[in-house]
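Researcher: I'm preparing a figure for a lab meeting and need a structural model of a single chain. I don't have an experimental structure, so a prediction will have to do for now. The sequence is pasted below. Please return the structure as tokens so I can convert it later.
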Amino acid sequence: MTISSVETSPRQRRILFDECIGKPHVERLKTFVEGKSGPKVQIAHLLDFQSQGVKDEDWVPRAIREGWIIITQDRGRGGIKKGEPLPRVFRSLKGTHVVLSRRVGERKSEQKIDIIHSVWEEILDLDLKPRGSKFVIEPRPGTASQGKLVDRSPPEIRNPTLGPMKQQNLAYEPDASTTT
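Model: Understood. Here is the structure written out token by token.
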């Protein structure tokens, strides 16, 4: 099976977990949300489509083109894989993605899945956000299994109606020929 082998409908939401989250745990999440997410949600693990260890820059472009929202724990800080850091790949391709915060990533796998499940309805609506949006799942203080989804998208993606000068936070300096 390849990433592109599954047909899509107009608003079929596609959630793809990468290798940072174990496939058995993704299967557990599927049992939590099956039937609750509606018929147009496809949940998959990267290992459903390819073998382990493929460089991010080899699989991410196709997944983004096909409309997958990617959930990862990879923040691009070290690791054993060679190649482009995943956050840089997302930025260059404007891929919408969700990253588990360091505090969520340090938890046991069962707790990670519980936290993802707690923000599941919000994740399902990420296909409506601008391309290239970045979200982080943070733990909700005082709980072991609740999280919150935080928008960490760059300003030009979060608010594309801002002009380039406001996006870059530049002051306007009028042309000398227009001043009196």
